[in-house]
Specification:
mainly beta, 19 strands, 14-stranded antiparallel beta barrel
Length: 296
């Protein structure tokens, strides 16, 4: 009797087993810079500072690559005044043909379909703490996750949490997130843990006379279940009002994962914001992601 193992797809240069699409960086701004957990609030990245927005906002994104997968995302944020803010994020991943691996024959053979969906609701607010000159922003979120491989499927519940702080005496921001902490995905024959991770980062803005504004960001990430570290850094240059150029570099302590250079841009047009990111990789080369956001 041959045992057939499903080869886990790679998304954004990361490989693993269940619900790996949750690792994918939905935000093209952070995707282009590789880092950015301390940048402004983002439903998928760090919702802690969503309460700082004064308007409702909604967005839609699409990501694809040479691996012929589809990745859709949508977000909405609702200010609640002094009560804080709510943020909703939904993502869907689908791929029709992924290879299976048979360890008895030591080769790949046949294919399978894989799809996944996750919906998260976040609450964002702030608290004044002794010793801090500015309020500390925080977020708590609940997430429902569904993952399907051929005719098998599994569901799980998870939580996210985030912190964000802007220093008063310098253009420096700090961010910290915990994502995908929850129950296992229970398939018919086995259970798989979620890709739980902790990410911390800093972002510093340089704004001097005769030079375009520059934002430098750096993140460190720890994958709880796979026990590897990632270190990412990026830069954002604003040569024109409403137009940003971005680049980043990501590294990892996992020898099976590659380091990558990432690039992209952002464009603000009459209430609409368009963000694009390009991420090269081995398995899914030339990944492109696009996200459009509007405030109202």
């Amino acid at each position: 009797m041959a045992v057939v193992i499903v080869r886990a797809p790679a998304y954004g240069g990361l490989e693993g087993s269940a619900a790996e699409y949750l690792r994918t960086q939905v935000s093209p701004r952070m995707g282009a810079m590789s880092a950015g957990v301390a940048l402004e609030a983002d439903v998928f990245n760090n919702p802690a500072a969503l309460h700082q927005r004064r308007q409702r906002s909604g967005g839609f994104g699409y990501r694809t690559g040479a691996g012929e997968f589809d990745y859709y995302s949508a977000s909405y944020s609702q200010p609640l005044g002094q009560a804080g803010a709510l943020g909703l994020g939904v993502r869907y991943f689908g791929i029709d043909h992924e290879e299976r691996f048979d360890p008895d024959e030591d080769h790949y053979g046949g294919d399978f379909s894989h799809d996944g969906m996750a919906a998260a609701l976040h609450y964002s607010s702030w608290v004044n703490l002794p010793g801090l000159a500015e309020p500390l922003s925080y977020s708590l979120g609940a997430k429902g996750i569904h993952d399907g491989i051929d005719d098998e499927s599994a569901s799980a519940l998870a939580m996210d949490a985030g912190l964000h702080y802007s220093f008063s005496d310098m253009p420096l921001k700090a961010g910290l997130t915990l994502q995908n902490l929850g129950s296992d995905l229970e398939y018919i024959k086995k259970s798989e843990s979620l890709p739980t991770n902790v990410r911390a980062g800093l972002a510093y803005k340089i704004d001097v006379v005769f030079l375009p504004p520059i934002t430098i960001a750096g993140d460190a990430e720890y994958d709880v279940n796979d026990s590897y570290n990632r270190y990412d850094a990026g830069v954002e240059l604003t040569p024109l009002v409403g137009f940003d150029l971005r680049a980043g570099y990501r590294t990892t302590s996992d020898e099976e994962l590659d380091s990558n250079l990432t690039t992209g841009f952002g464009l603000q047009l009459n209430g609409l914001r368009l963000d694009y990111a390009y991420t090269p990789g081995d398995e899914l080369e030339n990944e492109n992601s696009l996200f459009i956001t509007t405030s109202f």
